[in-house]
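Section 5: illustrative case.
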């Protein structure tokens, strides 16, 4: 089965894990700090904070910024559920915003403005598929409305501009991301005091960690705030160090494969739309396509699976999930609903070759032709 995503794991990762095990120090030590500093350098940031997941990162950012009960946070519904969940974690209310259009499935600025109220305190921008939202427009909007700007950059590690939009950015290193630590995440924030608050809150609000107490020869510590257990361990950090060294190269491969996809889909599947223009800044996390309205998506999925090609969807809209549908029964996001009904995600990862893309597109065209006879077939 050709998978939608596949982590690249090899001798470097095995050696990194073995070294941590042999050291006997497996949590919050030198590897975590080295990974944080390396991740910050890649993004031209002063520092980074490693945590257990992107969900933890979003929660910590909102918590440290003082978002809480009575506040509203603008979020897209076209995202993984963690984006909205993190708002509920701090007692605030997520307000779902429609996407701009099927070919630009990012949060609509006009819709965000229309949904602002006196209670709106922040915006969480999601760089869907690794495609960056427009920085200048959102910064201008946030300044005009007096809002905090947060990036959900789960799909966009390694891009020079990511993490520069507003107060902080959250990253994911889950197994299907552009680089992985199996589970894990990171935070970039420009304000040193915000970083210090987040760093302390990730470990129960403690003033020192186990390794720091060992090095200082003092067992004493204090707890100065409400905190959480959101630490990253040494094993995951060691994986991250090894993966980070190849992130730029992997993103370049993804970009070339994406361009090849676009060219072949335009030639052989002309009724299919590929979101975002070719030149759009991206880490090329997803190869998302939009099927013609009359096509049965499940039939296409089934045919590609019969040909040993996995596909998936990004995403079931959050406002349509049972938990959120019960909370927001009147939420109406027509553009998000239509995009989600027709979107299909094709395989894209650095283990693929141009010939793999050709195989996928030929199979995709054949699956479409069975449903849509006028579709060109390679």
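Designed sequence:
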């Amino acid at each position: 089965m050709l998978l939608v995503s596949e982590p690249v794991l090899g001798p470097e990762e095995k050696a990194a894990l073995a070294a941590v095990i042999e050291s006997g120090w497996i949590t919050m030590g030198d590897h975590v700090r080295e990974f944080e500093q390396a991740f910050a350098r890649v993004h031209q940031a002063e520092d980074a904070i490693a945590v257990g997941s992107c969900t933890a990162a979003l929660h910590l950012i909102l918590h440290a910024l003082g978002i809480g009960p009575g506040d509203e946070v603008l979020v897209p519904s076209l995202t993984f559920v963690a984006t909205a969940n993190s708002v509920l974690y701090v007692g605030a209310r997520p307000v779902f915003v429609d996407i701009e259009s099927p070919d630009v499935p990012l949060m609509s600025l006009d819709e965000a403005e229309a949904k602002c109220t006196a209670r709106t305190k922040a915006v969480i921008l999601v760089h869907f598929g690794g495609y960056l939202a427009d920085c200048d427009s959102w910064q201008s909007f946030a300044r005009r409305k007096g809002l905090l700007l947060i990036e959900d950059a789960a799909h966009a590690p390694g891009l020079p501009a990511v993490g520069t939009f507003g107060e902080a950015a959250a990253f994911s290193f889950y197994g299907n991301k552009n680089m992985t630590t199996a589970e894990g995440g990171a935070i970039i924030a420009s304000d040193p005091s915000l970083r210090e608050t987040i760093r302390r809150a990730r470990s129960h609000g403690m003033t020192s960690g186990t390794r720091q107490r060992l090095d200082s020869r003092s067992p004493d510590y204090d707890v100065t705030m409400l905190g959480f257990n959101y630490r990253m361990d040494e094993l995951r950090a060691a994986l991250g160090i090894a993966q980070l060294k190849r992130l730029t190269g992997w993103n370049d491969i993804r970009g070339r494969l994406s361009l090849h996809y676009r060219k072949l889909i335009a030639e052989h599947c002309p009724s299919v739309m590929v979101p975002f223009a070719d030149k759009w800044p991206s880490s090329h996390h997803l190869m998302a396509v939009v099927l013609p309205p009359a096509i049965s998506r499940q039939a296409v999925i089934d045919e590609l699976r019969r040909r040993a090609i996995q596909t998936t969807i990004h995403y079931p809209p959050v406002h349509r999930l049972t938990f959120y549908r019960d909370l927001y029964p009147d939420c109406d996001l027509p553009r998000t609903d239509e995009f989600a009904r027709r979107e299909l995600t094709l395989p894209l990862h650095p283990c693929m070759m141009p010939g793999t893309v050709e195989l996928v597109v030929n199979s995709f065209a054949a699956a479409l032709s069975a449903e849509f006879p006028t579709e060109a077939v390679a």
